[in-house]
Amino acid sequence: MSVISSITVTVPATTANLGPGFDCIGAALTLYNKFKFTRLDEGGLIIAVTGAEAERVQTDESNLLYQAFVKLYQYIGQTPPSVKMEIQLGVPLARGLGSSATAIVGGLVGANQLAGAPLTQLQVMELAIAMEGHPDNVVPALLGGCRLAATSAENWSICDIPWDENIVPVLAIPDFELSTSEARQVLPTQVSRADAIFNTAHLGLLLRGLQTGKGEWLSTALQDKLHQPYRQALIPGYDAVNAAAMKAGAYGMVISGAGPTLLALVDKLHSQAVEAAMLSAWQSTGITATVRSLSLDTQGASYQG
Ligand SMILES: Nc1ncnc2c1ncn2[C@@H]1O[C@H](COP(=O)(O)OP(=O)(O)OP(=O)(O)O)[C@@H](O)[C@H]1O
Ligand SMILES: N[C@@H](CCO)C(=O)O
User: Residue 88 in contact with residue 8, Cβ under 8 Å?
Assistant: First the structure.
């Protein structure tokens, strides 16, 4: 086992749920957090954060990146080394873009590499899912692409979902946060059979819509009854941004992850018009937002020694 003293891990943002795929589907996006881990001879823990909203990231042992780092060492039965962690933020915090998944995947991958790679990627993935509590952000963050995750008693089946190259994800990111735990608290614990059937059918259609790029299928498929109806009220301006995106030619608009970022799926020809429409709709309700057309990241977490 070779021992290295420093490793830099780059992890993509992710958009989870894609409407009907609550807690089971997500896609990696071309927006990144970078984490550099340097083994120290002594000194415990040093955390330095740069980038927008850097002051909002904890710099003590409660930091999620550090918790994931420690989790891996506990799993392999070793004491974590003293470490300096340099966090370069590119993924906005608590906006529904998988910032917590970047920290969990980054901490696990960084620790695994510093420890000499004792765990396989599959083991790292299972630890990441256990830490996050659901697979739809951490799996694409680790593996890249669009991924569906299904569990059985023994293990996870991970399926890569083909994504037609003409489908552009347009992300409208408002300047307010919504924590995942708050957005999960508003969800009912039980759903009706009709709603379960609705989402089963729509997720099936979504998978074919993503694969073929067929607009008619995507427009229907992006509807959901399990989480979005309950969460929309937590996102001021939701109706206005949705109406604007649809009028400008989007296939559909959904809440990205637990929100508050809104995701429109759009064909290439309409992406600029949809960007402008979503931005102006949010501004007209008094909310500052950033709107970006991104691509799918196909690589997932990567590292340089
Ligand atoms: N780079 C980071 N380093 C350390 N901790 C982070 C980092 N990014 C996010 N976190 C932690 O994760 C929290 C946000 O997690 P939360 O699940 O609420 O939102 P999210 O992951 O951005 O959104 P979603 O899960 O809906 O995609 C932050 O408040 C912070 O505690
Ligand atoms: N599937 C999760 C994604 C956010 O972590 C949710 O919607 O709560």
Answer: no
